[in-house]
Design brief:
The protein has 394 residues and is α/β, with parallel strands linked by helices. It folds into 2 domains: 209 residues, CDP-glycerol glycerophosphotransferase, N-terminal domain (Rossmann fold, 3-Layer(aba) Sandwich); 174 residues, 3-Layer(aba) Sandwich (Rossmann fold), CATH 3.40.50.12580. The strands form 2 sheets. The chain has a 7-stranded parallel beta sheet, sandwiched between helices. A 6-stranded parallel beta sheet has the order 10-9-8-11-12-13, sandwiched between helices. The N and C termini lie far apart (45 Å).
Length: 394
């Protein structure tokens, strides 16, 4: 009740300011709202090379990607930063393109002019967990909240996707039509097709963490769980991993920022905490084996054609609370481990199905072929006038 009241008051203030600023002249301007930021960074850089569009980036506290540049306006999109927040609403109200990379509740109260396009540049290339209208957790939300969710989804004019499979998921999650799908591929996947960029990234990481030069690299990147607020709560036997694998491997920990990690104090010669490293794609370049569970990392990591292990020790519980798009066992391209011993056994036996990983990569990255950013920019800004541009997307 208190939560809903707070949201209602926030949106009321947003709506009033939006209506006021909407009376100002519209600019040749694109405003990006960044919660993750990596796709937006790729898009903005290409946009700057190809057009003279004014660029404004509204950066939420969650966004860790560095987006600042001399030719961009970057604001903190946070109501606690009141001046920036008001400026942000002005830019949203006077732009001809609004590009977002997550769910943003303010869209429920932004009645844009007809010529304005709102583009959802979703932060994940694929999906294991259900979200949007299919998220099981919304059953417990109020009717007012459910109406708000639908208003936000109705604001999306177009959604960028990297595959037909993800397009169908978007249609179910957001209640959109086939005509709203932009099949240009996912901008940040261009990195995996850029040999020079991958080498620069690998050199950078190896210089920052020189101990990985001597051994193979395992990256552990689990989904955040509410009860795992410190590394001591993580269901992984770190000591056993160290004892069995440290001669040949280094373990990188990529944990959610909410998890208070003290891994630097345990087996420092074996574990490196990379939770604060901003670009996970760069970490994937130096990773030899990925261990994850229900996150979206495998969809892009599969482009590197490297092995994965899925540590799904709470599979039954998680599937009931969050819901999966397909049976987990048939969807993921790797061995499912339910304890640390099974992880070690899989690593030592090198029992990986590389054919399945290749098929997984092709299925989920169907339109991500190394030129996704250019295709997206060309489609929106270059080929035709603003009001007709999206009809050209195949």
């Amino acid at each position: 009740m208190v939560r809903e009241l707070g949201i209602t008051l926030y949106l009321l203030a947003f709506r009033i300011l939006f209506i006021v600023f909407k009376q100002c002249p519209q600019k040749k301007k694109s405003t990006f709202v960044a919660s993750f930021g990596d796709n937006i960074l790729f898009m903005v850089k290409e946009l700057e090379r190809q057009t003279d569009e004014q660029i404004v980036i509204l950066k939420t506290p969650q966004c860790k990607i560095e987006l600042t540049a001399s030719n961009r306006t970057v604001l903190k999109f946070d109501s606690l930063n009141f001046i920036n927040w008001i400026q942000s609403i002005y830019h949203i109200a006077t732009s001809r393109n609004i590009i977002v990379d997550n769910y943003f509740g303010f869209l429920a109260v932004t009645n844009f002019n007809e010529n304005v396009k709102c583009i959802q540049l979703w932060h994940a290339a694929g999906a294991i967990k259900q979200f949007g209208l299919k998220d099981p957790s919304i059953r417990n939300r109020s009717d007012n909240a459910k109406r708000r969710f639908k208003k936000v989804y109705n604001r999306f004019d177009y959604i960028v996707t990297g595959s037909d499979k993800m397009a169908k998921i978007f249609q179910e999650s957001f209640g959109i039509t086939e005509n709203q799908i932009l099949r240009t591929g996912i901008p940040r996947t261009d990195f995996f097709f850029d040999t020079k960029a991958k080498k620069r990234a690998a050199d950078l990481i190896r210089a920052k963490y020189p101990s990985i030069n001597k051994k193979k690299v395992i990256l552990y990147a689990p989904t955040f769980r509410d009860h795992e607020l410190s590394i001591s709560n993580i269901a992984l036997d770190i000591e056993k991993l160290h004892n069995d694998l440290s001669d040949e491997y280094i373990l990188l920990f990529r944990l959610h920022p909410a998890v208070r990690s003290n891994s630097q104090y345990e087996f420092p010669e074996f574990i490196i905490d990379v939770s604060d490293y901003r670009d996970v794609n760069q970490l994937l370049v130096v990773t030899d084996i990925l261990i994850t569970d229900y996150s979206s990392i495998p969809f892009e990591y599969s482009l590197l054609n490297k092995p994965m292990i899925f540590y799904a020790y709470d599979l039954d519980e998680y599937s009931q609370s969050r819901g999966f798009w397909e049976p987990y066992e048939t969807m993921i391209p790797g061995h499912i481990a339910i304890n640390t011993s099974e992880i070690i056994k899989t690593i030592k036996s090198e029992n990986y199905d590389m054919k399945k990983i290749k098929e997984f990569a092709e299925e989920w990255n169907e339109y991500s072929k190394g030129d996704s950013t250019k295709c997206l920019i060309k489609s929106i800004y270059v080929n035709t006038e603003q009001s007709k541009v999206f009809n050209l997307i195949p």
